[in-house]
Amino acid sequence: MFALVDGNNFYVSCERVFRPSLNGRPVIVLSSNDGCAIARSNEAKALGIKMGAPWFEIRHLEEQEGLVALSANFALYGDMSDRMMSIAAGLGPAQEIYSIDESFIGLDGVRGDLTKRSHAVRDRINQWTGIPCGVGIGSTKTLAKLANHIAKTAERKPGSYPDNLATVCNLVNLPGSDVDAILAATDVGEVWGVGRRIGQQLRDAGVTTVLDLARLSPSMVRDRWSVVLERTVRELQGETCISLDDAPSPKKQIACTRSFGQPVTEVEPLIEAVSEFTSRAAAKLRRQSGLAGQILVFAHTSPFRPGPHFSKSIVIPLRRPTADTRHLVQAAVMGVTQIYKPGFKLSKAGVMLLDLMSDNVSQGEFDFDAPETRDRGKLMAAMDAINDRFGRGAIHVGIAVGAGALRDWSMRQERLTPQYTTKFSDLPVARA
Q1: What are the contacts of 209-215 at 24+ separation with CB within 8 A?
Q2: Residue of 280, 275, 409 whose CA lies nearest to 330
Q3: 170: helix, coil or strand?
Q4: N or C terminus of the chain: which is more exposed, having fewer CB within 10 Å?
Q5: How far apart are CA 154 and CA 135, in angstroms?
Q6: Architecture of the domain spanning 11-74
Q7: What confidence tens digit (pLDDT) does each residue in 335-357 have?
C-alpha cells in the first residue's frame, strides 16, 4: 500500500509562505530567464493561463487582472521541499522522493486509521512549513497517484468528487462500487504514465475514462500498445508492478542548459557560458560517483524571434571516462569552437554528459599520460567541498571564471524574491 504526498501549486505556495499578501491573488512563477509559466495558483488557472504559457503572451494580465509574476527561486523551493519531505516521512516506514513536491510513502505495516493519520501529517506539514498539500492512498503507486489527483481536485473544484475525498483520498477504504464511480468520472488522461499521444489513441479506441482502462485485458493492452501501458493497467487493477524506489538509481544522462539573459553573438561569452554549465554538470556527476565517456554540446537561436536561425550540436568522445571538471570543460570548449558560427543571436546553450558509468569501473590500460593530464580526484573533491560551503561558483576552473551576475549571458531574473531560508541577509526583519 502506498501514499502520495504532493504540495499544492508548490512554487507558488512557497512564495506565499513569506508573502501572505499573495493569498487569493493570481500568481505565477516563471521559468529560468523569466520565459514562461511553470507554476500557477488556482486563481491564475481560473484566468485561463496554461502551463508553459510564454510570459510575453500573458503579461497584459498583470495590469488587467492583477496577475503577479515571480522569477523562479529554486534555492527557496529546494529548502522548503526538504522540510516538507522530512515531515511527510512520518507517514510510513519507507519514502521515495519522486520530485521536488511529490513523495511516495510505503505504508506496509502501518497500523490504525490511515486516513486519519494522513490528515494529521498533512496538517503538520501545513502548520510547520505553510505548504498545503494533498494525500492520495492506494494499493499501488498508480492508484495512489490517481487518489492524490482526486484529493486535490475535490478541494479545488467542489462537486467534482465527493466532498469527503478532498485533501485526503483513501481509495483502499472505499467500497468497490464507489471506486468504480470515481474512476468512471475521471478522464483517462489523468492516469500516471498516460501521455497526450497514448491518451488520444485510447480515446479513439473508446477508452475515455480510467474505469474503461482498468477493465481492459492486460495482454491485449500489451499486444496493441506496450508493456508499459500493460503495467499501468495491472496497477489500476490492484496488482503492484512498480516498487518503491527509496534509493534512486544514478542518472543515465546529466544535462545543464540555460537560456541567455541577452542574445550571445560572439564565441568568447559562449565558451564562458558552456564551461560554467560543464562545471555544474561535472559536480552533479561526482555526487553520484560517476564517470562520463562523452559530452554533447549545443547552441541555438530562439525559434520565436525573427532573423536567421541556427541550431547545432556535437558529441565529443573522451579519451577515457572522467569526472574531472578540467577535462570535461576542455572537451566542451573544443565542441563549442567547432559548432560556432558568427552572425547569429544565440538564445540558449547547454551540455549533456553521456555514456555514464560508475567510478568503480575502470578500464585496464597503461597510463602513458603526463601527470598534469591525469584525473585529480582529490582536487575535484576539494573544489566541491569549497563550493558547497561558500556557495556555487566560489571556485572555478579557469575558463569558467567571469564577472558573476554581471555577465551579459547570465540568466534574467528580474522578479526574484529573497532566499528567506538559506541566505542570512535575506531573513525578514520584524520591527515594532
Answers
A1: 209/183, 209/184, 209/185, 210/146, 210/183, 210/184, 210/186, 210/236, 211/180, 211/183, 211/184, 211/186, 212/188, 213/188, 214/183
A2: 275
A3: strand
A4: C
A5: 12
A6: 3-Layer(aba) Sandwich (3.40)
A7: 999 999 999 999 889 999 988 88
Show the cell assigned to 382.
576539494
The CATH fold assigned to 254-406 is Dna Ligase; domain 1 (3.30.1490)
In the chain, where are the structural domains located? 2-9+76-236, 11-74, 254-406
CA distance 354 to 266: 27
Global pTM value? 0.72
Amino acid at 386: I
Largest CA distance in the chain: 73
Banded pLDDT at 423 (limits 50, 70, 90): confident
Contact 103, 111 (CB under 8 A): no
Q: In what order do the strands lie in the sheet with 102-106?
A: 94-99, 102-106, 2-7, 133-138, 168-170
Residues linked to residue 29 through DSSP beta bridges, in sequence order? 39, 70
**Nearest alpha-carbon partner for 7 in 195, 167, 174:** 167
Separation between Cα atoms, residue 334 and residue 357, nearest integer Å? 23
H/E element, 27: strand 27-30
C-alpha cell at 212: 474503461
Contact 400, 282 (CB under 8 A): no
Domains 11-74 and 254-406 share a fold: no
383 touches 324 (CB < 8 A): no
Q: Could you list the beta-strand ranges (E) of 100-237.
A: 102-106, 133-138, 168-170
d(CA 404, CA 394): 10
Residue 279 grid cell:
562545471
The fold of 2-9+76-236 is: Alpha-Beta Plaits (3.30.70)
CB 136 within 8 A of CB 169: yes
pLDDT digits (tens, 9 = 90+) for 57-101: 999 999 999 999 999 888 889 889 989 999 999 999 989 988 889
Burial code (b: 16+ CB inside 10 Å, e: under 16) for 117-140 equals: bbeebbeebbeebbbbbbbbbbbb
